[in-house]
Amino acid sequence: MARVLEALTPLTGLLTQAGDPVGAAYRLATSAAAGAAGSTLVAQLQAAIADPGLARVVLQHAGVLDPAGAVTADAAVRLAQAAVLAEAHAANTDRWELVLTVPGFLRLAMDELVAVHGDAARPVETTRAVLEVAGRADRRLLIGAPFLHGEFVGLLAPHVQRVLTGGGQVVVVTRALSVAAPGRSSANVAAVTVLRDAAAAAGGTLTVRSWEESGLGIHFKVVIAYGHAAYLGSANPTLAGSAGHAEAGVLLHGPRLVPLERWLDAVCDELARRRLPQA
């Protein structure tokens, strides 16, 4: 059993890059059981993950493919075992944590709450949660909010540079950047400039999607490292949102990120379609 688990561990790890690791594993197992060729299984795995160059060697290590790239007799069983391991991994990682911004006038109330219920009652604070999420980003980091502040997003600049240097993508979703936008936000323009400068320093390009029409348009507040973790809550990435206001949100991990990732992608696509000249 230990030998089987060792052989499947790299495949299970690679599957965690997929938007739906368990579903990807079962689809591979179904394909193998149906008699798919080795090249088909490789292509199927490559399409689901961020590091496609590893697909063939990992399938060979798992005993799904032989050294020549042909499907082994045990391929369907091995892939079904990988699906079970992916399910176990998802059960251990699919969780949420409470995130709060606790302003000065509520600090005593928080201390009293912790005194009564123990340190486990102390939540993750917003700045820490946002930086933790940004620090886990590799292939895609998205920062979305209607209101931004240059000083706060400057804390994210090193992560923007790291993701872009590694070949990933950084996206900002906000509002009112163009000179033609109703109520153009100079604060948002300045904050996006900070992130664009960070991207340029890394030799990359920041992808910006902005609502440029009347009304707020975009009102969610989210920082998400695709495939890893997300902050989702009421706090804008501003100084007030991170220290001055009472805010609440959650730190999400695991497969429950998939619906959020899909929705954010859809929002980005729609904003790109509606795009107006930007600042």
Mean pLDDT: 91
Q: What share of residues is helical?
A: 40-55%
Percent strand: 15-25%
Taking strands numbered 1, 2, ... along the chain, how are they ordered across the largest sheet?
Answer: 2-1-8-7-6-3-4-5
Along the chain, the helix and strand elements come as HHHHHEHEHEHHEHEEEHEH
Poorly predicted runs are none
Number of alpha- plus pi-helical segments: 12
Shape: globular
| Number of DSSP strand runs | 8
**Structural category:** alpha/beta
Query: What profile does the largest beta sheet have?
Result: 8 strands, mixed
Explain what this protein looks like in three dimensions.
- With 279 residues, this protein is an alpha/beta fold.
- It contains 12 helices and 8 strands.
- Strand 6 and strand 7 form a beta hairpin.
- It has an 8-stranded mixed beta sheet with strand order 2-1-8-7-6-3-4-5, with helices on both faces.
- The model has no long low-confidence stretch (mean pLDDT 91).
